[in-house]
Design a protein that fits this description.
Two copies of one chain form a homodimer. The first copy, chain A, is mainly α. Chain A is built from nine helices and two strands. Chain A has a two-stranded antiparallel sheet with strand order 1-2. The longest helix of chain A has 29 residues, at 174-202.
């Protein structure tokens, strides 16, 4: 298809597509004539992916470019690709230096040991968790490791379930869709957290029941 | 304490504190002399809270001001306060109009019915979930409601556990710490998701086991 059709199909304005082409976010089309090129389904899928990462993932185009390059670099092992996702997602706003990561390091160490997770020590995910725990403690919220355990168990379940999701069967590569899935499901998790919190505030659970997972009752 | 001590104690530069005072994010101190005021533990706690919401929550100061005002407005019921949190967190980047919320509305409807959640129909959390599901479908990832169910179950568990966390026992009000907790635990959840994904990619779980939650095996 021509670039005008690509724009119509994707709903993305022509100047934006041209900008993505110039920035290398979208690969060039196949030249057909002077100043003309043909685009195919792969370009359309790639445009949708970029849109998903900007609108839902709220990532900037520079970060998206790095993530797409990492996904395309087949020589990069999957754990390193996931670490690249962490690098993009586990970012702090300004003033993060206030949080001393050492203060929350015990929670990270305990969860890693308990769940037997294999995570590169330099991964931004570890730093983000320990800093966040540190900030929680600064605010006087001293949740211990038993509080975090169910969150870690669910993260383990979800990671396995997400990895087992069937490939989209589209022109998006398996690696590319692993990246997109990981980031889109963050938004799913956050919106479900909000829904449950709003509902819980509307119909509070008696304190004694709060610690049991849904669907589990004492016999 | 004087404003210079407040700055030293909090590690926040004096000009920043003065800016927060001008913007009304930090309440004025008690006037002691011309151009002097006394600040107390409440101011220090408030500064830490603002820092937590900027660094970990990555919220802008305008949004933080709105959230703090909502938390202080005791006449606002708790569900409305949580909806204000949703309003701040469930935001999309540019181009979100591409995602037709109607396309993912079935997942939202099914989960609301199944979990019996009470959520205001106008809540941004509902819109965010349906839009995200819509974007996933656009990308060819057509997860059905059974895929989302365990995420919703965990959100229910977490909301109850978070609501049951003991009050920090500090000068931060219960409402204020509910807001901070909700947002800080988003960062906990996201970093744990990354850790589990990195680990899962390093040591993939056989596909047949992927659907069972951790610790549960068939007898």
């Amino acid at each position: 298809m021509r670039i005008s059709e690509l724009s119509r199909e994707s709903g993305i304005p022509l100047p934006t597509i041209k900008y993505y082409l110039r920035e290398g976010l979208l690969p060039a089309g196949e030249p057909t004539a002077r100043n003309q090129a043909a685009y195919h389904e792969g370009h359309l899928a790639r445009l949708r992916l970029i849109r998903a990462l900007t609108s839902v993932g709220k990532l900037d185009l520079g970060t998206i470019g790095e993530l797409l390059a990492a996904a395309e670099d087949e020589s990069m092992p999957m754990p390193a690709l996931h670490e690249a996702v962490s690098e993009s997602v586990c970012r702090f706003g300004p003033c993060a230096a206030d949080a001393d990561a050492e203060v929350g390091a015990d929670v990270v160490r305990d969860l890693l040991a308990e769940f037997g997770w294999t995570v590169t020590p330099s991964s931004p995910s570890l730093r983000m968790l320990s800093r966040t725990v540190s900030v929680m403690r600064q605010l006087g919220c001293d949740a211990d490791v038993s509080f975090f355990r169910p969150y870690a168990a669910e993260a383990t379940r979800a990671a396995a379930a997400e990895a087992a999701l069937p490939a989209p069967g589209s022109v998006i590569s398996e690696r590319m869709s692993a990246v997109a899935r990981s980031i889109l499901l963050d938004a799913v998790v956050l919106s479900l957290r909000r829904m449950a919190q709003e509902s819980c505030a509307a119909t509070p659970v008696p304190a004694g029941e709060a610690l049991h997972p849904v669907g589990v009752s004492e016999a």
